[in-house]
Amino acid sequence: MASAPVLDAELARAVIDPASYAEWDSLLDRFDAIRAEAPVAWIEGQEGFHRPFWLVTSYDAVMQVSKDNQSFLNNPQTVVFSLDEGIEFAKAMTGGSEHMVASLVTFDAPIHMKYRKLTQEWFMPKNLRTVEAEIRSLAKRTVDRLIAAGPEADFVKLVSAPYPLHVVMQILGVPEEDEPRMLMLTQQMFGGQDDDLNQSGMANMTPEQITQLVAGAVKDFEAYFAGITAQKRAEPTGDVASVIANATIDGAPLNDRDMMGYYIILAAAGHDTTSASTAGAMMALAHDPEQFARVKADRSLLPGIVEEAIRWTSPVQHFMRTAAEDVELGGQTIRKGDWLMINYVAANHDPAQFPDPRRFDAGRSPNRHLAFGAGAHQCLGLHLARLEMRILFEELLDRIETVEPAGEAKRAKSTFVGGLKALPLRIAAT
C-alpha cells in the first residue's frame, strides 16, 4: 500500500465517527478536502478496532462501484461499516455470517435477482397506484395532527418519522397498534448510534447485554412475522407481506432466515430513509419562503423538490463492498479481497457532478444523484419513496400558508442511515 494515498488519521476517524455525521457542514468540508486530494483513499485499519478499507468519495468512482456488481461484491464482508466487535457479534448471532440479517442488500448474483424479482413488480408505479388512496389518507391524518399541534411543532416527531412508518407497516400488513413495537424492535436490532434516538438504553449496556437484547429482538421480530406469514398463507391479500409469505425460489418456499430478512429490510429501510428526505425537504423550504411560495403556487415543481431533497440529505450515507478481483478505480489499484466504503454523502455533494452542491435547488437538472444507489442494487422502494413524499407535500401545501424555523434543527449521530432527529417549525395553516 506504499503508493496508495493514505488518509490522515484525524480525517479517517471522522469518516467512521457517528458524531461527525451530525455536524453536516463540517462533514461536507472534510469530504471536499478528501475528494480533492484523493477520490479513492486508503484508511489504515486499527488492530482490534476496525479493518482497513478504501474510502470512495467522488461521484464517478462511486457510480463505477455501484454498477460493477461482478468486481465489487456485497458478500462476504459486511455491507455496512462495522467495528471488529460488531462483526464478531454478528458472526456469533448468525453462526458465521458477518451479516446480522440476510436480505437483498447482502446478496450477490445470481441469488440477488431471484429475490429481487419476488417483489419488484409490487413496487413499480403501476401497482403502487392501487395503494395511492390509502397513502393519501395517511398523509391527510398526519397533516391533521401537525396542524392540531401548531403553530409550533417538531416536524420530525409529528410528521416525517411516523408517516413513512405508517405507510410501510400498512404495506406489510401490520396493524397500526403494533407499529410502536415494530419501531422499537428495528431500533434494537440495528443498534442506533444516537443516544436521543436509541430508546433501548444501549449506550449504557455491556456488549453481553447488547447481545442478549439484539438476540431477543430478532426472536421477537421473527415470532411476530411468523404469525403474519401464517395468516397471509391462509388468507392472501394484496399487500407485499402476502407476496413474501407465498413466494418460492427455484420451486421451494423461502427459508426462515431469508424470509425474515425480507420483512426486516422492508420494515427498517422503508421508513428511516423517507423520513430523512421528507424532513430535509421541509427544512429547506422553511429556510426559503420564496421557494415555498413558488411550489405552493405551482405543483409541477414538486417532483424537483422531492428529488433534490433525496440528493441533498442522502439518507443512506454509505455501503461497503468487497473486491472480487484486482481492479482499477479512481487511479488506484484495488486488490482482490479489499474492503471499500462507497460514501453517498460525498458523491452526492461532488461539485464535478452537482454545481454548488450544498445549495438546495428544486430546479436542478440533471439530478442523477446516487441516493438510491445504481445498477442491480438500486433501491427497490425508490418509486414508493417518491410517491409518499409527493403525496405528503401535496397535502401539506394545501393546508399550510407559511412555514419558518422555530429553533435549531438537529441531525442524528449515525454513519449508516442519517437525517434530522428534530426540526422545530412555526406553521401558519390556511
Task: Identify the notable features of this structure and list them briefly.
globular; 17 helices; 49% helix; 14 strands; 3-stranded antiparallel β-sheet; single chain; 430 residues; 5-stranded mixed β-sheet; alpha+beta
What does this structure look like?
- The chain has 430 residues and is an alpha+beta fold.
- Helices cover 49% and strands 12% of the residues.
- The chain has helices at 9-16, 24-37, 59-67, 84-94, 111-120, 125-128, 132-149, 155-160, 162-171, 179-189, 207-234, 240-245, 256-286, 289-297, 302-313, 344-347, 382-399; strands at 40-43, 53-56, 72-73, 152-154, 248-249, 252-253, 318-323, 327-329, 332-334, 339-343, 400-405, 410-411, 420-422, 424-429.
- A 5-stranded mixed sheet has the order 1-2-10-7-3.
- A hairpin with a 2-residue loop joins strand 5 and strand 6.
- The radius of gyration is 21 Å and the shape is globular.
